[in-house]
Amino acid sequence: MSEHPNDYIKPELMACCGAREIQDGDIVIVGTGFPTMAANIARYTHAPNAKLMQESGVYDARPLRPALSVGDPCLNPGAAMIGGLVDVMGMFLQGGWIDVGFLAGSQVDKYGNINTTVIGDYNAPKSRLPGSGGANPIGSLAKKVLIISLHDTRHMAEKVDFITTPGYIDGPGSREKWGLPANTGPSVIITNKAVLRFDKTTKVAYLESYHPDTSVDEVVKLTPWKLEVSDDVHETEPPRAEELKALREILDPFRMIKIYEKRGYV
Amino acid sequence: MSEHPNDYIKPELMACCGAREIQDGDIVIVGTGFPTMAANIARYTHAPNAKLMQESGVYDARPLRPALSVGDPCLNPGAAMIGGLVDVMGMFLQGGWIDVGFLAGSQVDKYGNINTTVIGDYNAPKSRLPGSGGANPIGSLAKKVLIISLHDTRHMAEKVDFITTPGYIDGPGSREKWGLPANTGPSVIITNKAVLRFDKTTKVAYLESYHPDTSVDEVVKLTPWKLEVSDDVHETEPPRAEELKALREILDPFRMIKIYEKRGYV
Amino acid sequence: MSKIMTTQEAITRFVNDGDFLFIGGYICRPPFAAIHEIIRQKKKDLTVVRSNTADDFDMLIGAGCVKRFICTFISLGLYGLARCFRRSIEKGIPHKIEIEEYTNLSLPLMLMAGALGMPFVPVKDMVGTDLMKIKSFMGDNKYKFIDSPFDGSPVMLVPALNPDVAIIHVQQADEEGNAQMWGIGGDCKWGANAAKKVIVSCERIVSREVVGKDPSRTIVPGFKVVAVTEEPFGAHPGYTPGFYDVDFSFGYLYQQASNTVEGFQAFLDEWVFGVKNRTEYINHYIQKFGYEQFKKLWAKFDYSYPVSYAY
Amino acid sequence: MSKIMTTQEAITRFVNDGDFLFIGGYICRPPFAAIHEIIRQKKKDLTVVRSNTADDFDMLIGAGCVKRFICTFISLGLYGLARCFRRSIEKGIPHKIEIEEYTNLSLPLMLMAGALGMPFVPVKDMVGTDLMKIKSFMGDNKYKFIDSPFDGSPVMLVPALNPDVAIIHVQQADEEGNAQMWGIGGDCKWGANAAKKVIVSCERIVSREVVGKDPSRTIVPGFKVVAVTEEPFGAHPGYTPGFYDVDFSFGYLYQQASNTVEGFQAFLDEWVFGVKNRTEYINHYIQKFGYEQFKKLWAKFDYSYPVSYAY
What we know:
Largest sheet of chain A: 10 strands, mixed
Largest sheet of chain C: 9 strands, mixed
CATH superfamily of the largest domain in chain A: Glutaconate Coenzyme A-transferase
Structural class of chain A: alpha/beta
Shape of chain C: globular
Largest interface: A-C, 53 and 55 residues
Oligomer: heterotetramer
CATH topology of the largest domain in chain C: Glutaconate Coenzyme A-transferase
Helix content of chain A: 10-25%
Strand content of chain C: 15-25%
Number of helices of chain A: 8
CATH superfamily of the largest domain in chain C: Glutaconate Coenzyme A-transferase
Number of domains of chain C: 2
Structural class of chain C: alpha/beta
Low-confidence stretches of chain A: none
Radius of gyration of chain A: 18 Å
Order of helices and strands of chain C: HEHEHEHEHEHEEEEHEHEEHHHH
Number of strands of chain A: 15
Radius of gyration of chain C: 20 Å
Distance between the termini of chain C: 29 Å
Low-confidence stretches of chain C: none
Number of domains of chain A: 2
Order of helices and strands of chain A: HEHEEEHEEEEEHEEHEEEHEHH
């Protein structure tokens, strides 16, 4: 049995949930923030042979500070390989080598589709967002996609305003119809309230576990689609001592992760 | 008026003929032997800004000995850029940047088609040759192709046994029909007897100049197709003093070029 | 034949109103010296392209230089959304730019296809999403969807891009333009080689002999290059590996300024129009923030092992 | 997780009869240690591929390991035509191999397409020639000719290649397989990355820290690599930039030997079957030709300038 210290904050729990999705030896494409922390917690605990890369062209970086973008200077010295976008997005991702990708978005819907393009109408936007970047190809081609989201009716939707990145698109058979590679697609949505997985048949996200300070009812209420609940729904396992230790002592000594609390991850 | 020493050998004359086809600033793709010597004579005389590359991935090499293959070690130290086949054959040649390519073959025909694949029937060959290598793409895509050949009925043919590399293929309109880029194709055949060019209308090689020790009649007789003769046919200008000086003093101090005499270039 | 010239001359001679520009970098090696000069010379109606963009493209958009943007992503990273870009799209300030959207897989491959002389290239992303539904100035040529002639499976083809001019910033180049780069590459090599002309901005001009000591580092051959400009700190507030770090505080300054139209104009007046060239810019930086802050940007010393190409 | 093992173990474990192999190099860095081991282990029915080949592929063909050859060119360079290849094609000795012919543009791009996960790639060469007319084991899938869906112009598409195993020889690699190379590249990077598994042979194994000092030199990431073998002089009689020169006299020896079936067999008996591994091979070389001739192959000392990736 692992120890579970109870002084954790919600973003730490979420990072640990992400870490637990990663298996030893996995090739993981990460952005900044949560994904890097989650993947590194995995590396320092149960998945020492997991390898990370950034879309800008970096494989197995050894940053001495947390990277603030996929082009951060700290990703250069010590990396095992540095090429460019064609190497990572083409050779590794489209080439079929990426086991896990992390994505976040301004909106995520019940099929795991993600919007990072526009809130409102595309041609008369309420808010114009950054666009796809690497998100669409990661969502299209990584074997397993982990989605990070705030759990509220603004960030989760029955249907996103704009599908930037494909989840299961319109539901069962959609990815296949469009020729996306077999055995790819979103695997989990990790929110500040719960962990959702996708039903094998309907491809709709259902509740697998609710975080310690919440309940099935609360999560169902916060979710804008009719949230099915797993037969063995349970409380999310809190951060283990060794996970927190890796995070706090090695990966994020200045606890930059707290910034996510300010962004609503509570 | 240039000086013309008369102690030259035929391969030297041929190299000078090649050099004169190169203009200052031309980007030239070369193999070994004649092409390198010709292009370098040009660089040391009238075309100091011509640049050479080898298909293996080398641009603007500074070899200290004559390269014996496109992968020769002497091409590495001092080059301006080294990549691979995709860089030179893809980025520079298919990208449309190569002004001049040199080709030779076991057979060349009246349309400038070249055979480096097989003598006799493809499936029951009399002699199996090395294959295309870079020849086909150079013949397909370089703006100007210079062909080097022995002038006899074994090496020149009305029709080659196998078209490895396209000249004008079946004649006028053929390159266009196949979608080869406009303004590409063979420009000249330089032999040990003469310089042939291609008629703008018929695309058949005709006699432009015969080398000093031969005659129009002899060249016509040695050519296996009905060789048209230019209205202003003339004797080929012999090597100029400065061309020979570049070749003998800088490029080929050991006069390795003499090996071509043994191969029949007399 | 030396192609060394000032950035002012390079932009004057080789960038025309209405041109299609690839501008390399992304936090790593953005060619800011050239970007500021484009703004100073009030170039307009440009079509610009790069995968992943940041303050550099935001500034060009805010300054009114851009008509069309072939894009995948634009943000100020740590500091959130790109302000000038948003104002253009949401409010038409200074005018509404047209955008054609791809991804960080498809767009680099379109530049690669351009560099390799391919008419188009198959990609596996974008399908099934709204990125397929929106088409702007590229119209039906944004992509084509075919059945593979090999096995009948559906394949998306995207067209090659061949910009008129590429502008990149690298660590070093020689006078002919042989450009050497190391560290994060983005789509710099393919974008530069896809263009008809390349302007190479560099931290230091080196001799042809130095280039020849390590030719595998060269990403653009001299024959494609029309201008070489020596611009130390030319990527500031971005960084250049081995030379200087990102200037996060300057990034914040830009974000704060670009929050408003007035702030953005004041920023341009101070940092672009208020200086003649990169030397004056750096001088102004030191005047304003002090030499100590400037010095903090300098890279630490941590050199690689030399290798030999000898035989 | 160290992947270091002997060449014998690597070939035993990862190369199976009937496999499709990419073998990198061309005079520069041919992985001869691995090639000899493949012959020693009498692997058979292999499909082999590379653009531009020489004595390395000729030897595999003569030894009877090859069933199919996706090729562009094979010759002994200076020493003329490839003898074993000719005997196979012309006389069926030891058996007639099947060949599928491409060019030094189309084949590297097919490997690139394989590495990039593309189903096919458009090429501009081969059209109009007899290379279009001959089709062997790839049949109608050798290429497809379509009208471009963009502008209707004729376009040839060639299929991606994904070999089962790639074997390359590079200057240095770490124990995980991160492989670093400089100098003439041929189709090595794309061929290796197109394969499902990579065997990295290298002149020297270096630490992960050494790799990290210059990560832009890495051409294959460790995660694709299944075996790392340290084989100094592993490319002999080819060369490795910075390590040793081509051995022209050994090339002549091979050509003379391979002129006849008997001579070729005697060559194999002496240089392949007569030794257990590369160490014995080099030892035999020194015994036979003397240390002085061996020493003449060593590269001169001419190092590059170090660079920094620091910030």
